[in-house]
Amino acid sequence: MEKVEGPYYLLNDDLVKNEDGGSYPEFEGRTVYELIRVQDGIAVFLEDHLDRFFRSAAYLNQPLPATAESIAERVYRLIAANQVGEQNLKFILGKTAKGESVLWIFFTQSIYPPKNYYEEGIATSLFHIERLDPNIKLVRSDYQNAVLQERADKGVYELLLVDGNEEITEGSRTNVFFVKGKELYTPPAKAVLLGIVRKKVFEICEKRQIPINETAIPVEWIKEAEGAFVSGTGNNVLPIAKIGDHLIPTLENPIVQAIMADYAEMVRIYKEEKKH
């Protein structure tokens, strides 16, 4: 069962009071979802998230019962009703037993990396598992349960997924980048979920003229990496200090530090523009 937080949630266009023991929608078949970070009352990069959400819905041949503009209006209506400053907002689109399309929007439990993770880097581990339909955000409880258990067992913040070719594809909830020389390397778009922060990293690198190579990342590359980081809605740009037992000198890498700083500034500018 989803953890719904706050006094209100949205079912299609209806603002519903979130009461203890209240009934949440029950979906049949596959559902798609989207997760958006709200900061200072602003849904960060909402337009990018909505674009991906509509693409996910089209993949399931499940039209959304609303336009992007009306969903954006609903998002800010929900933010105002719940008086949220910073928290994750989740969309789920699915069909009920009656075959009706339902768009459920609610605030969910949100745990963000502590400040020292950005200053000291995170510990990660390799995990041999492959996600089905990697370009689409499908709700998959089996996958989620497996990675939660593995993260707990290994005592790491994030897992780097490894496929049958012994190649790193992405993080369990993030995209991953490696630094070699003055260039970035990341798995190809076809093999990963196209994260919104990943997209912003590409924009930053284009402005800075930092080459990005979309290519297969063999596990052996870990030994040659001069820096590494993950990107994601709940994590922003987060440096990797260790993969398994191998230490990565990410915190000394000027390319990673520049990308982290530029992303933080990009978010700040977006929030300022949306406040006016």
From TrEMBL:
Belongs to the class-IV pyridoxal-phosphate-dependent aminotransferase family. PANTHER family: AMINO-ACID AMINOTRANSFERASE, AMINODEOXYCHORISMATE LYASE. The keyword Ribosomal protein does not apply. Gene3D superfamilies: 3.30.470.10, D-amino Acid Aminotransferase, subunit A, domain 2. This is Aminotransferases class-iv signature. Keywords: Aminotransferase, Pyridoxal phosphate, Transferase. Pfam families: Aminotran_4 (PF01063). It comes from Trichococcus ilyis.
